[in-house]
Specification:
mainly alpha, 0% strand
Length: 92
C-alpha cells in the first residue's frame, strides 16, 4: 500500500489483559466443588439405604455358620402364619 501512496491502516488497540479472571474462575470452581461435596454428604447421610419390601427374595454368602434356635424359629413361623394370609408364591 505504501508503494501506491494509500495511507496505512490504523493500528489495532492492545487486547485487554485477563486481570483476575483466571483467579476468580478457580475460586468459583473451588466453591462449587465444596458445595457439591457437602450436598452429596448430606444426601448420603440421610438416605435410608436400599429399600427391600417384605418377601423380596435375595441371596447372601455368610462368612461363618448361622446358628438358629429351633424354638425361636418355630415361634417366628407361627407368628408369621398368623399375621399374613397364605398366598401362593408367584415366580416371575
Amino acid at each position: 500500500m505504501a508503494a501506491t501512496g494509500t495511507p496505512a491502516p490504523p493500528q489495532l488497540p492492545p487486547l485487554p489483559g485477563f486481570g483476575n479472571g483466571p483467579r476468580n474462575a478457580m475460586i468459583g470452581l473451588g466453591v462449587a466443588a465444596a458445595a457439591g461435596v457437602v450436598f452429596i454428604g448430606v444426601m448420603a447421610s440421610r438416605s435410608p439405604g436400599p429399600l427391600m419390601h417384605a418377601g423380596t427374595p435375595m441371596e447372601m454368602v455368610l462368612e461363618s455358620p448361622l446358628v438358629l434356635d429351633a424354638d425361636q424359629v418355630a415361634a417366628a413361623i407361627a407368628l408369621y402364619n398368623g399375621q399374613i394370609p397364605v398366598q401362593p408364591l408367584v415366580r416371575y
